[in-house]
Amino acid sequence: MKLKLNMRRTFLIGFAFFGILLLWQVYDSWCPTFLTDIFAHNMYGLTSAELKLSDPAKILNVQWLVGIIMACDNLAALILLPIFGNISDKTKSPIGKRMPFILVGTFVAAVAFPFVPLFFHSNNVVGMIIMMAIVLMFMMMYRNPAVALMPDITPKPLRAKANGIINIMGYLGGAFATVLGIFLKLSDYINVSDRADKMWIIEIPFIVASILMLISALVLFLTIRENKIADEMKEQMELGEQMAAIENPVTDEGPMSPANKRMLLAILGAEFLWFMADNAIGTYIGNYVIYYLNSVSSATMILTIAGGVASVVGFAIAGGIAEKIGRKWTVSIGLIVTFVALLVMIFVKPTNVVTGVNGEFSFPVLLYGVWVLKGFGMALVHNCSFPMVVELCSSKKIGKFTGYYYTASMAAQTVTPVLLGLVFMKSGVWGALPVYAAILIALSCIVFTILVKNIKVKKVELTKGLEALGNDD
Question: Which of 261, 264, 267, 262 minimizes the C-alpha distance to 447?
């Protein structure tokens, strides 16, 4: 029997990631700045733009509060992701075990999402935070089952390549949000005193994200027949188990072998560290650009596009690299490339060349190179690390092990915004951001390279050409 990756079906499953990264890109690009501005207004009676001119140190002083709110959302995710993973593993329904969670989570999150900028515009801190919490809670209902859907119906040796495809789909989702951010500049809202007629600048990205999320979930529901595909894939899934890149075979019953448990803990430990670094950059880069580099917010979006293009390249080739040198060394190379990028970022400074209509400085070109390197490096890391985790479980526990993977990532994202916010407050410098991230990436590389074994996937015979597209009939 040949193992084949059904490309068409994998792309369709990627619509789940399309919705996830679409919402996350809008959330991470807009919400930290919303929180910075609304806390500045309520604590000091000034907008963040006014505070930036009169007393910029106070902008750094509110970052720990921004970090706490962002961390509380992640704390909820830390609790909910494993719960929804376990529940979906045991769910049986006419539309599958993952699809009910995907549909309900998407619908509620999409309805609540546009209310976040609405409450921000009216300076309602409580309402804004409640809406953020609702969005995050129902995205957690959506996220774990959506991520588990790929390994549910993809044999283990093919999951790195499949993960690359669905991550590319996810980055296309993020690209929609990024393009909106280029034309609807958050800084054009933040840096003005009269915002009454500028509500549309911050509302449109959230509405568009909600609509596209609903469309992506609908496409997934109409094209992926979960139960039917699972029945058709039984033989290939069993063959995939025999070819898995693990030290000891896994079973549905009994505890994990000591070797597999050590591998799992090492991967999750390294993952915790690199997500602390990656989330620190993702959470604060918008504020870093607006309040430190004093550049227009659209520059952040162009950064995201540059990093996204590099990530797509990384996702496209990571599976092939892993087949040649193993997933461990592919991840290690990705971490080293990311570390180099962050070292370069340490030396990026404001240009002091005024170009914007609101007195903004020109954007440092070097930072685009940093984002290209970082995007490519982290694509290699993310592409191979998740398949390594679900490699260590049977098909009946994929949701549970997906929960482990996201528990590590969300624990990191709970700790890092608060910790870095305190670092900002104590150091008083925005330059702490790349130093903090570089140290964590270095530590994760050390942990991963020393403690994780390199076990190559056994050679598999793949179908070529049109046959590889498969069918669902």
Answer: 267
Q: Can you give the pTM of this predicted structure? A: 0.70
Cα 462 to Cα 18: distance, rounded to the nearest angstrom: 27
CATH architecture, domain defined by 7-460: Up-down Bundle (1.20)
Each domain of the chain, given as residue ranges in start order, spans: 7-460
Q: 96: left (phi > 0), else alpha (psi -120 to 50), else beta?
A: left
Give the CB-side neighbour count of residue 177, counting CA atoms within 13 A.
30
Of 429, 426, 189, 424, the C-alpha closest to 292 is 429
Q: Tell me which residue has tokens 């991967």.
A: 267
Answer whether 366's CB lies under 8 Å from 344's CB: yes
Instruction: Say how many C-beta atoms besides its own lie within 10 A of residue 194's C-beta.
Output: 6
**Nearest CA-CA partner of 142 in 108, 94, 92, 173:** 108
Task: Locate 414 and state its tokens.
Answer: 């709970």
How big is the CA angle at 381 (ends 377 and 386), to the nearest 5 degrees? 160
The pLDDT confidence band at residue 374, using thresholds 50, 70 and 90, is very high
Helices vs strands, H then E, count in the chain: 18, 0
Dihedral angle sign, alpha carbons of residues 218, 222, 227, 230: negative
d(CA 16, CA 170): 8
- The predicted-structure confidence for 130-147, as pLDDT tens digits, reads as follows 999 899 888 888 888 888
Residues 6+ apart with CB under 8 A from 224: 9, 12, 13, 99, 149
Separation of alpha carbons 215 and 213, rounded Å? 5
